[in-house]
Structures are given as structure tokens and as C-alpha cells.
Amino acid sequence: METMTGRHRSNTERRLPNPLRGRTPDELEDDVRQFYERQRPKGLADVVEVEVLVKGALVAQDPKNLAELPHAEQKAIRFEHKAGFLQQTKDLKVTILTTACAAIIQGWQQSTINASSPGWKLEWGIENWNYIPGLIDAAPWISGSIIGTWLSDPLQEGRYGRRPALLLSAIVCAACVIGSARCESWQALLACRLILGIGIGAKASIAPVFAAEAAVDHLRGRLLMMWQVFDTFGIFVGFACVWVVDQNWRVLLGTAAIPALILLFLVFLCPESPRFLIRQGDYAGAFTSLRHLRGTDIQAARDLYYIHSQLQVETASLQGRSAHEWWKGELYQEEVRSKSFPQRVWALFVLPRNRRACLAAFLVMASQQLCGINVLSFYSSTLFGSLAHENGANVECETPNSPKCNNPLENTKVVWLNFGFGLANFLFTIPAYRFIDWRGRRLLLLISLGGMFFTLAAIAGFFRIQNDHVKIGLVAPFAIVIFTLFYGIGAGPVPFTFSAEVFPLAFREVGMSFSVMVNFLGLGLLVLFVPALTDAFGPHNGQSNLLFLFTGLNALAFILVFFLVPSGTARVSLEDMDAIFPCLASTASS
């Protein structure tokens, strides 16, 4: 067991040894020239000169070795570690915004099905049914976990890649959302939402990986957490649309098509993932993509050869072979071509490196469902509605063709509470942008889970208060402000960020598919069974007992993350993750 001092090593010390440092400058130059000649028939010579690639490899070997570079290139390399998101290249910003738009789709449709549920339940006469409305709510997450997430790998195989797969997912999402707004029966709505889940599941497995592979190392956590920021933004906008459409449930459901249609255009504006192109053996395309993402030829050449070298060493390590002659060929591409989709899925659980990443990703993704946030997110209308109803506010909907609330909108407490919850969920995710690469993923998640444990316990206790005015006055600020604040700084942004970066490139698609499956399956089961659990707990303290249950699950998530999830992933390149996951969580730096 290491000492506490040993457990707090820097990320630099946690990296894999740079394989380029095992070569002399002359040997490295010879290696690069041989690599260049092997790739010449595939077009690498058409996009970069060999001298530029040699200079880039020498910088990758020793980042301080800049003396022989032109002043402009030296300035670009020195500035890149200080540059924020707004100082990144246009293509990187477009790529991140594209993946952010994919997140908006998820949050938007999540809140619109919540806000529109009284309308379609009443129109089809199922407002008193328990399981059918729950099944409709849960349908996308169930089909997404079982089918959609696992489609992401086949969609990206061969010549497709991240961008076309994301495009197909956006088409499915847009079509199904529009179809949902046109349904004439609950059976049709259920079918649309089941198909919608396939698009959502595939999209959620593709977009975070796409962002991780495009991002620069020192900003990767911040750029990846754009997924959660814009997911919560989508939730907020979905609730805000209640005002715009005057609670017409069909139009409200249809508004979720807006981000999907925008995504259809954005995917054509961003470059393909350079790591995916390297996986396919297209080094010329990878260099071009890196040139767009990084801004200069020398940075693109440096990253291209460093990624190539680390992938060859990673592959040799996964195969249990010596990596001392990695420079002689493309072992990684041979490994990728030799494994089918089922073999890659199987390798997730039989290779120790993958198995450790799977366990950590499983726990981090599951913690998001155990913490209780989605009980409030999906059932805020029910939870807040019970408070408003007890306090004399009529929140029922009556008009069959276009159900609307009887009371004026400004007097409807449920609408205001939903709006406040959505806004707080969005705003409180933003501070994590500052800390996720500074303090690390694991620490933020532990702080988040600890804070949510105490606030959720308080909210559960407040539901037992008999005085309705006091109850609303306490539940609203605790649920809308304090609980969502703790969620926003850790349990919200960390799971998708963490899962998108921890798997080796050869298994990244299936690894992310597994991670999102865990998250979506947990969410689907939660949405499906929470109403039944509330009823089983009794009519008087059902909501309180339900929230106490999730308080206990929150504590369980904290314990599992503390003991079994390693940290040290911040500011470490994707290829250096192998240095972290052979280590036990107990020896990981915090």
C-alpha cells in the first residue's frame, strides 16, 4: 500500500513513458522517414513534407526542444497550453458545438415529454393508468440502452466514421420527434419513442467520443463537459417552451426537433476524428484533420506521430507482447482489422485493461442514476404538482384537443417550479467548466455525491411537513438550488466526460456503448418503476419515502466511487490512460 504522499502524484508522473524518448534523435528521424515511406502510397506525402513530420516527432519526443523551429511555430506551441476554448481553432469550436447540439436534443425531449404528459394522458384517457405512461416515458431509454448504444460501433465501422454516424442519429431523432407530435394514440406515441431511443442511444455513444478525440489534452475535460452543460440547457429550454406554445402538448413535443435539424447541418462543418482516421490507417486524412483542429502543421505533425507511437505501444501491451520494436510497423491497425464487433465486445471483459475501465465507467454512470436527480427531472411535474395541489392550486388539464391548464400560466406553481428547476440545472453545471480539469473528475464526483446526500435527505424530510406553505418554501429552494448545485458540479458533467476518455482507442466505441447502456438502462428502469414505488410507499409519505430511498442509494454510490474509481485522468492524453487503469483506485492520485 502506498503512502498518502505517494497517492498524490502529479498527472505527469502518471503518464506512460513516452516511447519516443527511448530513441536517439537520429534513430527517431530514421523511424519517421521509414513511417513516411510506408504511408506515401496512401497519400501522406501529398499533405505534409517529411521534414515537417520529423520536426513534429522531435517536439513530441521533447516538448522543450523548440530552438530550431520558426518563431511563429514556437509561439503557437507555447500558447496552446494557455489558450481557452475561445482561443481554439474554428474547426475545434465547431466540432465541440456539434456534439453540444447532440446533447441539447437529449435534454430537450426529456423535459418536453415531462411537461406535455398531462395533455396526452388526458386526451387518450390514460391519466389514471400507472404503467402505460411510465412505459412511454421510459421507452427511449430502454430501447436506447438495448439497441441504440450498441449500434454506434457498427455505424462507425468501415468507411463511415463519427460524422456520418452522428448524422444518421440526428435524422432518426428529428423524424421520431416530429412523428411523436402527430400521434393519434398512445400506442403510436410509444412506437415513436421506442425508435427515438435508438437514435438517442447511438448519438449519446458517438458524440462524447467524437469530442474527446478532437479536444486538446489540457481542455479535454472542459470541452467534454459541454455535453452535460448543453444537456441541461436542453432541459431548461424544453421547460421554457411551455410558455411559447401555451402548453399545446403536440407542439411542445415537436419543438424538440429544432436541435436535431440544426445538428443535421453542423455535422458537415466539422472535420472527422483524427484518431478514427488513424484507426482506419488514413494518416493523410488524420494529418489534415489535426491541421484544422490544432492550427499549424508542426502541431499536427507532432500529434500525429505521437498518437501513432502510443497506439502501437498500447496494442503491444494489450496483446502481452514486447513493445521495444513498435516503430517497425502498424501493429495497431492490424489488431483493429483482425477483430469483429462481437470480439471487441468480448474483449471489454476479458482484457484486464478494458475490464478496469469498464468497472470505473459502470460505477460513474450508475452514480448519476443513484443520486436521485432524475427522479426530480422526470417527475418534477408530479412531485411539484402534489405540493401545488395540496396548497390549493389546480394544475389539472381539461381541453381534449389542446389541453391547457385551467389557471393562468403565471399562477401555475408547477410551471414555475419546473422552469426554476430547469434553469438551476443548467446554470449550476457551468462552474464545473472551471474545475473539471483543475481538480479532477473523481474529486468533483465525490464532493457532488456527498452534498446531494445531505440535501436529498433534507428534501425528503421536508415532504413530511404538514404545513403546505412551509413545505413549499423549504422544498423549492432545496430542490431547485442546493441539490442541483451539488449535482451540477460533479454527478452531472463527470460521467460522460470520464467514460468517453478511459477506453483504449481500439475499444473506445464499444466501451462508450457499454457505458451509455448502463446509464440509459438505469434511467429507463427508474422512470418505469418510480411511480409504482411511490404508490407502494403509501399515499401520505410516498414521495418522502421515495426520496429517502434515493438518499441511501446516493450514499452507496459515494462509497463505490471512493473505493473503486481511480482518478488522475485530467490533463492526461487519451493514449496515456493505460498508465492509470492498471492501478487500483486506492493508489490513484486524487
From TrEMBL:
- Biological process according to GO: myo-inositol transport; polyol transmembrane transport
InterPro entries hit by this protein:
MFS_dom, MFS_sugar_transport-like, MFS_trans_sf, Myo-inositol_Transporter, Sugar/inositol_transpt, Sugar_transporter_CS
Give the CC-aspect GO terms.
Answer: membrane
| Alphabetic keyword roster | Membrane, Transmembrane, Transmembrane helix, Transport
Quote the PROSITE patterns the UniProt record gives.
MFS, SUGAR_TRANSPORT_2
State the compartments where it is located: Membrane
Which GO molecular function terms does the record list? transmembrane transporter activity
**Which Pfam families does the record match to this protein?**
Sugar_tr
Q: Where are the transmembrane segments?
A: 165-182, 188-211, 223-245, 251-270, 357-379, 416-436, 443-463, 475-498, 510-534, 546-565
Membrane disposition: Multi-pass membrane protein
The residues covered by the Major facilitator superfamily (MFS) profile domain are 95-569
- Where does it primarily localize? membrane
Ranges for the region named Disordered are: 1-26
In terms of PANTHER family, this protein maps to: MAJOR FACILITATOR SUPERFAMILY (MFS) PROFILE DOMAIN-CONTAINING PROTEIN, PROTON MYO-INOSITOL COTRANSPORTER
Similarity comment: family membership: Belongs to the major facilitator superfamily. Sugar transporter (TC 2.A.1.1) family.
Q: What is this protein called?
A: Major facilitator superfamily (MFS) profile domain-containing protein
Q: Which organism is it from?
A: Aspergillus terreus (strain NIH 2624 / FGSC A1156)
